[in-house]
Design brief:
The structure holds two protein chains of two kinds. Chain A is an alpha/beta fold. Chain A has two domains: 5-246, Metallo-beta-lactamase, Chain A (4-Layer Sandwich); 254-395, 3-Layer(aba) Sandwich (Rossmann fold). Chain A has helices at 55-63, 81-84, 87-94, 104-114, 183-198, 202-214, 234-246, 263-276, 292-299, 318-330, 349-359, 377-395; strands spanning 5-7, 10-12, 15-17, 22-23, 26-27, 32-34, 37-40, 44-47, 73-75, 99-102, 120-123, 129-131, 136-141, 151-155, 160-164, 221-224, 250-257, 282-286, 302-308, 336-343, 363-364, 369-372. Chain A binds chain B through residues 104-105, 141, 143-144, 148, 200-201, 203-204, and chain B through 7-9, 38, 41-44, 48.
């Protein structure tokens, strides 16, 4: 079957962005998709659009099913520009008097993006329904998942949840549906998306899933705005979100470090070996070799995070500042932390890293380990002790 | 009267200022805001706020 067909009368007219490798600072090794949906019923509805450079492609995709001028209304589930960039041109093409349905915050945001009074914006709120003829669409506001304007649209008869960015993945591989990709690969992409986009709103994710369960919404298919759609097993991704939003620390450590003349790296290696010797999974990530979005993906479910930095000009290494700033914003919770690093004369780095660890609300598992210039055997012994201490704490989780 | 901060977006409700957009006059304590009052910045409910 054509991968653009979600069900009879509902089509994915979105586009695949094979080339993108950096999505506002998130590494997208397999590109992404901007899914947009066309409902062809007595009334014709376009749900979300795509990033601006793909406007023509979106129009061509719509033309495979209908003349775009016949679209009666547009639904904007999310106003971020990867879903609204094409909106001005689409509205110009189909007629600017046509209604755009969005949440109250969506109206505010669309006005801020494209100007007041430009479009016929009609606000909808949770529970409101519209009929397209044979299909009923209902709306569910999902504020701050992940923008104030975010909302879901649910196609009642077909039992399809259009979930906007929630349950998305930055993936533009060969699969369009969950039955065309291995579960492990899909979950890896979805987890990275969760860690980089939804993590700070985990409390709201938990509430939303409970609300959806309480509503007893039957869901046959979930169509997110990025990546594969879930028709084989939509519960799989819902259950994964249920687990991720709890932020339960696992028996896993992540060692994040940078090094100037290999001393801090050698310390990291000793710490990693000591943790691994206790059969605790440990991931070692050099901040200049690993992308921040991959680091946060490993961090989101770990129980311990260790930071290593040499002291450079009385400070930590810039690449460490990058990941620490990113982490502070994404707020991964429930971890223990510790710091280590080599220094030449002043040695501020460990103290600075400790402050970050405490600011992020983690238990400082150790006062930290400083080594002047190059670690010797007694320093390595201290590194091993630190690693074993972390492993023991994780074992007792 | 205490200030309350939205744990989701960081907005602070200051009772001295109220919330003009939400129709709240200056001088209304956070505790007295209606149950359906939402954060004027991000739209989440009162339960997401913490006392400063």
């Amino acid at each position: 079957m054509d991968n653009t067909i979600v069900c009879k009368g509902i089509y994915n007219v979105g586009v695949r962005d094979f080339e993108i490798r950096d999505f506002h600072g998130y590494s997208t090794y397999q590109g992404t998709t901007y899914n947009a949906f066309l409902i062809v019923d007595e009334k014709i509805v376009l749900m979300d659009t795509v990033k601006k450079p793909f406007t023509e492609k979106l129009l061509n995709n719509i033309k495979k099913f209908v003349d775009p001028k016949k679209i009666d209304m547009v639904i904007s589930n999310h106003t971020e520009m990867d879903h609204t960039g094409a909106l001005p041109h689409i509205m110009h093409y189909i007629g600017e008097e046509k209604p755009i349905l969005c949440s109250k915050a969506g109206k505010k945001n669309l006005e801020a993006h494209f100007g007041k009074g430009k479009f016929n914006l009609q606000t909808v709120s949770s529970g409101e329904e519209i009929s397209t003829g044979t299909k009923t669409l209902s709306f569910l506001e999902t504020r701050m998942l992940h923008w104030p304007d975010s909302m879901f649209t649910y196609a009642k008869e077909d039992k399809i949840l259009f979930s906007s960015d929630a349950f998305g993945q930055h993936y533009s591989g060969p699969a369009a549906f969950d039955d065309q990709i291995s579960e492990e690969e899909m979950l890896n992409h979805a987890k990275k998306y969760y860690a980089n986009i939804l993590l700070p709103f985990s409390g709201l994710v938990k509430k939303l899933i409970k609300d959806v369960e309480d509503m007893k919404l039957e869901i046959n298919t979930i169509c997110p705005d990025h990546g594969v759609m879930f028709r084989k097993d939509p519960l799989k991704i819902i259950n994964a979100y249920k687990e991720w939003c709890e932020q339960k620390p696992s028996k896993k450590a992540v060692v994040i470090y940078d090094s100037m003349w290999e001393s801090t790296r050698k310390m990291a290696d000793e710490i990693v070996d000591a943790i691994a010797s206790k059969n605790i999974p440990v991931v070692s990530m050099n901040t200049r070799k690993c992308h921040r979005s991959d680091i946060i993906t490993e961090v989101c479910d770990c129980g311990a995070v260790l930071f290593g930095s040499p002291t450079l000009n009385n400070n930590i290494f810039p690449a460490l500042s990058d990941i620490l700033t990113y982490m502070k914003g994404l707020k991964p919770k429930n971890k223990i932390g510790a710091a280590f690093g080599s220094y030449g004369w002043s040695g501020e780095a460990v103290g600075i890293l400790n402050s970050y660890i405490e600011e992020m609300g983690y238990e400082l598992a150790d006062p930290g380990l400083k080594v002047q210039y190059v670690p010797d055997e007694s320093d390595f012994e201290k590194c091993r002790e630190l690693g074993l201490k972390i492993a023991e704490k994780l074992e007792n989780l | 009267m205490d200030k309350y901060t939205c744990t989701v977006c960081g907005y602070t409700y200051d009772p001295k200022q109220g919330d003009a957009e939400g129709g709240i006059e200056p001088g209304v304590a956070f505790e007295d805001l209606p149950d359906d009052w939402v954060c004027p910045v991000c739209g989440v409910g009162k339960e997401e706020f913490e006392k400063e």
